[in-house]
Amino acid sequence: MRRAVTLAALLLGACGQAAAPNTGQSGGQLQAQVIASELVAGPQQRVPIGILDHNTPVNDASVHVQAFLLQGSAAVLKGESDAPFKGAGLEGAGAYIAHLDLTPAGNWGLDITASRPNGARLSQRLAFNVVATPIVPAVGQAAPRSHNPTTKDADATTIDSGRPPDDMHQISMADAIAQHRPTLVVFASPAFCTSRVCGPEVHVVQALEPTYRDRLTFIHVEIYRDFVPDPSKRQLAPTVGEWRLQTEPWIFLIDSKGIIAARFEGPTSTDEVKAAIDHLLA
Known about the structure:
There is one protein chain. The protein is of the alpha+beta class. It folds into two domains: 2-131, Sandwich (Immunoglobulin-like); 156-281, 3-Layer(aba) Sandwich (Glutaredoxin). It has six helices and 16 strands. Strands 1, 3, 4, 7 and 8 form a five-stranded antiparallel sheet that branches. Strand 7 (85-86) and strand 8 (95-102) form a beta hairpin. The chain is globular.
């Protein structure tokens, strides 16, 4: 009980945000961050974590996470998970992924421990909020029937900032859902992403397309519009607002009934996406 009370005292001051900032309990040169704009109540939720060494992301740490539900002055241990690094296909980027039971919604804390082969170690506590009603469309909800622009409406270079643009602009989400097509949607801006993850994330999806294109529709939604000919005049694309996205990249899998079957925020490796596709199509 003393451990629970002490942990709660350290965490309560930072609660109230989907991914709270560092509470300052790292105790060394390593630092942990939860890299998600929102975490939703439910079993085995994906919790992406970044580990920094002197502010530089690292991919060789061994990471373990304990999750605590904060109840008044107590912190109740609800589960724990190893968090292996997932970076396949992401060209050096990636995240440490824990899967945790996050029920019920409310104020939670993470106790994160990590160690690197060079001897660097981390013990850090972070606070975050688990929501019952997400802002971004969630698993089990109907996908917005968005009329994202396609190559039927415009040249690919005006609706995809990647160079060359990819081939995932053939059909809108509204049409794919109306035709009862299982669909993968990736929201990303290869040219204007504020991190270095968006281009590699599109490449992850492109690498899977040849294997699944006969059973799965692939759609890439560019985050911005009006970036040609002057990128400084770009604006957020209407589809991004319809999906209420606050970060990028995102990947959604939509079943043949138009229901969201899986969603991934931030860096998502090839093996994570492939496993979700296989589950959708099984």
